[in-house]
Amino acid sequence: MNLNEFQAKELFSKFGLPVPNGKVAWSTEEALGIAKSFPEPKVVIKAQVLTGGRGKAGGVKLANSLEEVEKISSEILGMKIKEFTVKKVLVEEQMSIEKEMYLSFIQDRDNRGYRMIFSEEGGVEIEELARTQPDKVMMVQIEPFPGLVPFQLREVLSKLSPENKKHARGIYQMMNKLYKLFIEKDATLTEINPLIITSDGKCIACDGKISIDNSALYRNKDVIEYRLPEDENPLEREAREKQLNYVKLDGGNIGCLVNGAGLAMTTMDVIKHFGGEPANFLDLGGGAKAEHVKNALKIIVDDDDVNTIFINIFGGIVRCDLVAEGILNAKKELDIKKEMVIRLLGTNDKIAYEMLEKENISVFTAMTAAAKEAVKLSKQQGV
Ligand code: GDP
Ligand code: MN
Predict the structure, then answer these.
(1) Domain 21-93 has CATH 3.30.1490.20
(2) CATH number of 97-224
(3) Ligand 1 centroid – CA 55 distance (Å)
(4) Closest ligand to Cα 44
(5) What is the DSSP letter of 3?
(6) N or C: which end of the chain has fewer CB within 10 A?
């Protein structure tokens, strides 16, 4: 789960990381109110959306008077950044920036541990910097036990360029605190870009990104509160609430209803093999009941990119007759206009075939033949 910048900064504060004074606003009036609460209305207005590159897209701007706050916040609110519409902005006191650095902690699966990434040249995209000037990016491997050890930080900080040496202590504290947050909140990423040095020599987190491991949300109740309806894809939200695993994919037009992650992968592969493109996949999981199948079909039907539905179920624990019942209920209740190809095999499949044949719905038993048919139908309808 990804957090908005204002939420990340709230967590930063809780862990003692300095952030600029600021508040989030959902309207121009609120933005004005926040700007007025500062000694001077010199603020930075920042789009709060769950995607990067806001600066480049015009979603981060400085305002130096109340008139500018009004103008800029009304421009940014409602703006589209990638597929996200900006519903809220962070209004912060302007910082006078002397230096922009980079600091992050990420999971490092290859080394079964964590990694700290630090650079004295921040503010820019770290991937870009690592490509063009790899010597400017410092990496520290962290073993989960004993975790980040002080000598590792001292080694990094000993390499600071002479003009930044005087900030070593401040940066050291930021590193320790950000690491503590990373571990205690079960994060997969915590990033400060830029970590700034102000003209009066303070270290401050000027931007913040945090991703929390979804499997650890049960023990991070405060983080779940950060899930805002406007930040989520509505279909993904509906799927999550109905305990379905729904994954939206870019560019395709075949909606796939499957059971099990393995079959989901195979289904994608077979569709691609025959020249088609999946639009999503929805994994029913084991032991699905008719109601579950109907809920799943509703989500696929509501995905506007889908022109053909491919149901590919192997009945192990799942019973094919219950899947058939779900399909029939969905057909009755949802007025499905999209083409549908069904492949069902396994427990109680004979009963399922009878139920579906009664309604003139044909069923495949072989996955390849069914996938070919789904690809053919999706192409006939064009894009
Ligand atoms: P991002 O583009 O989404 O990563 O947004 P950031 O929060 O990182 O802001 C982009 C850039 O805006 C920063 O690298 C800074 O150069 C600039 N910026 C952000 N806040 C301030 C501020 O308070 N004062 C000044 N002068 N520049 C700022
Ligand atoms: Mn940034």
Answers:
(1) yes
(2) 3.30.470.20
(3) 7
(4) 1
(5) P
(6) C
- 169 band by pLDDT with thresholds 50, 70 and 90: very high
What's the CA gap between 180 and 170, in Å, rounded? Answer: 16
Class of 233-382 in CATH: alpha beta
d(CA 351, ligand 2 centre) in Å: 57
CA distance 226 to 8: 10
pLDDT for 81-140, tens place per residue? 987 899 999 999 999 999 999 999 999 999 999 999 999 999 988 999 999 999 999 999
Name 248's bridge partners: 280
Ligand nearest to the CA of 192: 2
The atom of ligand 1 lying closest to the CA of 123 is: 14
Name the residues annotated as catalytic. 102, 191
Distances (CA, A) of 296 to 144, 232, 258, 286: 39, 18, 10, 14
Q: What are the extents of the domains in the chain?
A: 21-93, 97-224, 233-382
Q: How many CB atoms lie within 10 A of CB 83?
A: 8
| CA–CA distance, 290 with 282 (Å, rounded to integer) | 15
